[in-house]
Amino acid sequence: MADTAQHLDIGRVLNNTLGVIARNPLIFLGLSFLIVALPQSLIQLATGTSMAGSDAAAMMAMFDSPSLMAAAFGGWLLFIILSVLLQATFIIATVKDLNGQKVSLGECIGHAVVKIVPLIGLAILMILGIMLGMMLLVIPGLILALMWIVASPVMMAEDKGIIDSLKRSAELTKGSKRWIVLLFIVYIIITMILGMFMIPFAFAGTTAIAIAGLIINTLSGAIQGTGIAAVYVDLRIVKEGGNTDALADVFA
Fold first, then answer.
1. Per-residue DSSP letters for 183-223?
2. Do 13 and 230 meet the contact criterion of CB atoms below 8 Å apart?
3. pLDDT tens across 17-61, in order?
4. What residue ranges do the domains of the chain occupy?
5. pLDDT digits (tens, 9 = 90+) for 224-239
6. How far is CA 147 from the centre of its chain?
7. Which of the residues 63, 130, 159, 223 has an alpha carbon 20 to 30 A from that of 90?
């Protein structure tokens, strides 16, 4: 039976997000560590941005070095690609899990790799659109970010092109934007709570800080990535009723 509510169910999204991770910790936490947290730390070490973050002079010196600037840009581009791959993998794994199917790491990554090029194109277009909107008094950028929040899941699950994925995302999020904002606030609070655990490590040396950062970035990456997929699934239930059977057939 269709959900009588016409907006996102925050409680259900959070329950699904944490439930999916708890049932598949090696896949979700492992991928978040390997694809996001670890590369992010290595990029920081390679470019010296971890030092630059606490030393203004080091930060300015980085801008004076073409090689460091190139490395920073390359690291940023690599991070975007890896983040897109992670999100796509999490979408497939989340839908399968919520439909009661076995989650296969190799199968999920395989489906994600096939779509990596259009997903990167989608991510670039979204970033440009949101940045342009931010330049226009900020609010238009925030609205676009909310409208397009599930564009990547749409592309993965419904096999749509870039523009159609954006349109479909706008359709699904209609009437749920305020609830998505509230969900973001919850995620921010969770991230802040996780960040508080780093405070004791600040007095334990660089190695301890790096390890704590890896743990926190792994947890944050898993929650945020899975959360977006869970939002998409919930919006499909709200808008169209039923469950995830139709989605699961896409990845069968």
1. HHHHHHHHHHHHHHTTTGGGGS-HHHHHHHHHHHHHHHHHH
2. yes
3. 999 999 999 889 988 888 778 877 776 665 554 444 444 455 455
4. 10-250
5. 889 999 999 899 888 8
6. 15
7. 130
